[in-house]
Each structure stands twice: as C-alpha cells, then as structure tokens.
Amino acid sequence: MRKKWMGLLLSAVMVTGLVAGCGSSTGSDSKEIKIGANFELTGGVANFGKQTVNGIMLAFKEVNEAGGVNGKKLVLVQADNKSEPSEAANAVTKLITQDKVSAVLGPVTSSDVLATLQIGQDNKVPIITPTGTNPNITVDNGQVRPYAFRGCFIDPFQGQVMANFAAKTLKAKTAVIYIDSSSDYSKGLSESFEAAFTKNGGQIIGKEAFLQKDQDFKATLTKIKGMNPDVVFIPAYYEEVGKINKQARELGITVPLLGTDGWDDSKLVEIAGAAALNNGFFSNHYSPEDKDPRVVKFVEAYKKEYNEAPSALAALGYDTALMLIDAIKRAGSDDPGKIRDALEKTKDLQVVTGVLTLDENHNPVKSAVVIEMKDGKQVFREKVNP
C-alpha cells in the first residue's frame, strides 16, 4: 500500500511539473524577462545578423549591470534563421511557442521579417526588426500590423535620400537601376528611388536584375556600360554588391555607383577591393564619425566589448533593444500585450541614431546619412532629415 501511495505521489509531482513547464517562464514571479533574437547567424547575410545581435547584447549587458528592467534580468534567447525566410518562420515559432519569450527582435532582412509576422500576430507577441526597411513589414494592404514594429527608417525614405543625392548633389540626369530580384528589400528600394529620381527631373534609362548568390555579373554590366548612365543604383547586400562593384570597374564603368544600408559591412571592401569602391555612395542610419556624445560613448563601449568599430547594423540593434527596454519599463510588465501597447506610444526616445518616435504605422521618424567610400574607408558625406 505504501508503494502504491508513493507511486501516486510521484505521478502527481510529475504531472505538476509538466503543467508548470507549459506556462511562460517569464511570468510575474520570474526574475527574468526572456526576449527572442531571430537573426541571420549563418548564410548569405550572417555578418549583418551577428553585428545586430552584438548591438542588442551590449544594450542588455549595460541594462542588466545597472539593475535590470523592473527588477528583472533580461535574457536573450537566440535562434539562427540561416538567412532564409522559411527558417525565419521556424525560428520565430520556436521562440514563441517553446521558449515563451515576451517579444522577438529580428530578423535583419525584409524577406526574413515578412515570413515571421503572421506567426507573431497569431500568438500576439510583438516582433521588432531593427533593420527591415520594407514598408509592408508594418503595414499590410493599408492596415497597420498591430504586433509588428521596427527601429529603422523605411525604404521610401532611403530611396528618396539616394535619389535626391544623385540628382541634387551629383547632378545626375540619367540612372540605371540594378536590383536583386529575389529580395523584397531590393525591389522596394528600386521603386522609391525611381519615383523620387523622376520627380527630380531625372530619367531611368534601364532596369536590370540579378539573383542572390550570383557570381558573374559581367554580361549585364557590359549592357549597362553601353547605356552610358550618369549613375547606377544598386540597392542590395554586400556579398553581391562587392562583386558587382569589382566587375563594373574592371569593365571600365567609372560613374558613381550608389547603394543603401545593405552595403554597410567591412566584408564589402574584402570582396570588391578598396579602389573599386571609390566614387561609391550609400545611405545609412548613422556614422561612427559623428561627434554626438551618445555616438562617441556607444562607439567606445562597442569597441571595448568586441574589439571592432560598430556598423550601422550594430547601432540599430543597440537602439532597438533600448526601444524595447523603454517599452517594458513603461508597461511595468513582461506581458507581450502590454509591451505592444507601450511600444506603440514610443516618443522622443534618445538613442544612438537620433531621437526616436514611432509614427502611426509603427515606423520611426529619424534622420539618415550619406556615406562615401574613399580608399576602403567610410567617410561621412551629408546628413538628411525626414
């Protein structure tokens, strides 16, 4: 009889443990707040993912050392989406349903972000991309996605910045657009650049496309050279951009090559070579050369932590972490719904890349900069306000 009662008692304990395991580990009685990180840690844009995560981890470290958030420690639960939309969907599902996170930061690329949004919506967990610039991330068919947020400016602004720079600063009259047709990011930027460039009186004399992971661009670049444009706009990521720049210069294309924040990686110089990038310009979210005290402090802290200078991706990761931390503080809770409500009211938050206020579409209103490449170095060219 004693064995029977012991067995029943053991079974009851096991059931209780299983039931407890089904609930969120970030409940009100927990001393931790679990935040998901769904990033490209391997694959085509792994450098971007790692840099963004580094920025987030630095922000979390600083806050935890200062006592945490609402008396709790922030814990970052990472998942590698392998730079693939399908894997991004798998990663966010795991983070939400198994790891029970209160919010998810990431992914980096617009295509990967878009693959995760319905899952966040279905589970009512906020998804905040530090870097995804496609407008459809936060607005779908004219309707704001209630659980989708971002920490960066959007493609229409970035495309407009580079179109205005081409027309007004470089005095370009004609342009060719060369995009990655497998990328929502690239396609969106193409549309916004074309609209702004033609509005400024310019003419798009050609549109060409490649696919991610292509290696040889010379046939298309030869065609572009024959068009004789004043500038070539290449809104894509560093792997392909580096090869395109290198091959373009080898073919004798000397006109300015323009891009966007997807260019911002030290590997770009390794792939293209410093000389091939001269007379190249791209839009970005901040410049580490900025003498603003907040930028200086961030750059020094990042270099101390990682022994390298922070890219714009690292700065955006840091800033988006601060935005989430601010929302959790104001919510006074790690409940996903309350965090969502607080995120929506983010206003005048001072971060590294500027003063951050979310508009009615969950997009930040903030400045951009134009960077010039000179002998393999990024040089601040000009700042553009929204």
Report on this structure:
The protein is α/β, with parallel strands linked by helices and 386 residues long. It is 45% helix and 20% strand. The chain has helices at 2-22, 46-65, 85-97, 110-114, 117-123, 155-169, 184-199, 218-227, 238-250, 267-272, 274-277, 293-306, 312-331, 336-344; strands spanning 32-39, 73-80, 103-105, 127-129, 139-140, 143-144, 148-150, 174-180, 203-210, 231-233, 257-259, 280-284, 349-351, 354-356, 368-374, 377-384. α2 (46-65) crosses α13. The protein starts with a helix and ends with a strand. It comes from Propionispora vibrioides. Residues 1-20 form the signal peptide. Belongs to the leucine-binding protein family. Keywords: Amino-acid transport, Signal, Transport.
